[in-house]
Amino acid sequence: MQSAYLSSVHATLPRVLSLFDTNPISAMKGVGDRYRWAWKGSDFTNGTFQGAAHGLASLVANNLLPENIPHAVIVKRIEDMISGVGNITRSNGSLDEIMPFESSYCVTALVAFDILSALRLLKRHMTTSRWVEHHATVRPLINFILHSRESHGIISNHLAAGAAALALWKTATGDDVNSALVSTISLIEEHYSPEGWFLEYEGPDPGYQSLALDYLTVLNELAPEHHLSPLLSQAANFLTYMAHPDGSFGGLYGSRNTRFLYPAGIETLASSSEAATSLAAFSRKAHLKNSVVGLLAMDEANLIPMFNSFCRASALEKPILGAPLLPCHSRPFTKTFPDAGLIVHRTQTNYSIVNWRKGGAFYSTSAGSDGGSLAIDSRGKYYTTQISRKNSQIISQDTNSVLIEAPLLRYKMLYPSPISMILLRGLCLTAMRIKFLNGLIKKLLVLLLIKRTTREAGRCRRHIQFEPFTVKDSLVENDIGLELLPLQSFYAVHMASQGYWQSGDKS
């Protein structure tokens, strides 16, 4: 059986291993942020790279390394990576990602999860004293997770990483972390929709939900008393609707515009869920064809989580016989997810998904992807319905069409300038080192870059007919002389994880 994942893992291994400082006399030995230690182009260290220990440990434990790479060499590299974590951990136990002293819950949680997962896999490969020493390196990260919470938004995959890290710590050390573990799981469940999706900022995002499953399946294994299995099955079922007949997945109708597909959680669930079995079969075929965003398309900022997922999936991959049909291959139907703002419509010739909260952003087999209505004013400024709003609404709907009305908001993507970077660095070195102010500034950044509280400049109606698939936009409020632009795939929200290449891209 040809592995859908292992060839990509082996092709990526040289790149991953080259990230880490192996200089025995370097103060950054074992650190993976090459832009920091090699290029000297950054004044802080991105801790995300240290998580590669997990993927490498999966390869060692499951005998999946290439024949020319000795296990002992990789185990030594992993130990250096864990030691490297201790050299870049801040005094409050946190790690950085994109700013110095940012106290990143996300990166601290995922690195703690990855290092503890690696230690769990490699316990027989190291002495007891080394195993204890490496856990001592992780302890400050766990203490940070225990006493911290992201306040700038509900990002379920981050919370899932934190909860899974706490469960791993409890299993390894016996420490009582139940209070934080229960509260984190409760927060995830509180923002879980019965429709089968976990909240990512303003709604569901298929790509990041696949990553959340990577963490939640481990959490479910370690803490079955929390009864997450029904939620995970429902989550897999929701994701089956986001798998497209051309092999792509997710996109502009998701809250974060992502198109990647993390496979490890799905492969874990495939043995107990028919929906996950169908998804696993889809994932393997799509990753082999590169019709979905996968490991080979990742930039360095997202490389390690995807690398780890591919390594884990390589070990989990088993033959699939007779997987149930995905919705995109089933008989014609219409399904609405009211909480998500999604309409999924299948006809004999077309499969389409429409998000009315994003002004009718859609995927369609016949029409491709579109980011919602887009308009321009006489000064060349753009306005769009892509920014999700609760006051976007369905005006009318029948079996073959829907009429959506949504506000047009000014689009202005902000990029760093020398002055803004100086100001931000100043805040990082001063105000953001105070916990309350750190959270407040992050909230302001999210409002500015993602939630976009821009005043409405008008409203647009989008009429979508499903068979044959047609779209017509019209302005219903237009006091500033807006002109509608043709349908197109565009991005109007800040999200670093959008826009990766996949086979079939035409732009």
Topology (elements, then pairings):
Layout: H1 6-18, H2 34-37, H3 52-61, H4 71-88, H5 105-121, H6 128-146, H7 156-173, H8 178-190, E1 192-193, E2 197-198, H9 206-222, H10 229-240, H11 264-269, H12 274-289, H13 300-316, E3 333-337, E4 342-346, E5 351-355, E6 361-364, E7 368-370, E8 374-376, E9 382-384, E10 393-398, E11 401-411, H14 418-429, H15 435-451, E12 456-466, E13 469-477, E14 483-484
Helix pairs in contact: 1-13, 3-4, 3-5, 3-13, 5-6, 5-7, 7-8, 7-9, 9-10, 10-12
Characteristics:
507 residues, alpha+beta, 5-stranded antiparallel sheet, 15 helices
Structure in words:
The protein is of the alpha+beta class and 507 residues long. It has 15 helices and 14 strands. The strands form 3 sheets. Strands 8, 9, 10, 11, 12, 13 and 14 form a 7-stranded antiparallel sheet that branches. A 5-stranded antiparallel sheet has the order 3-4-5-6-7, with no helix packed on it. It has a two-stranded antiparallel ribbon with strand order 1-2. A hairpin with a 2-residue loop joins strand 10 and strand 11. The longest helix has 19 residues, at 128-146. The protein starts with 5 loop residues before the first helix and ends in a 23-residue tail after the last strand.
Give a brief outline of the structure.
This protein has 15 helices and 14 strands.
